[in-house]
Predict the 3D structure of the following.
Amino acid sequence: MAETSFFKPKGDAKSEATNMTARRIIEGEAAARRAKTERLRAARLARGPVEAPPKKKPARRK
């Protein structure tokens, strides 16, 4: 038990490195997605309100 409290097994070091790399990639993608969303939201708000097209009345049956 004393051996494991001081040293990590070799497999844990590799999995920890993989985990950290995956988290960095995921965080980078999330940041890019948030930036894109903010950019598109700002562009949409800059365009101003959009008027909805008038609704057509359904055709009457004869």
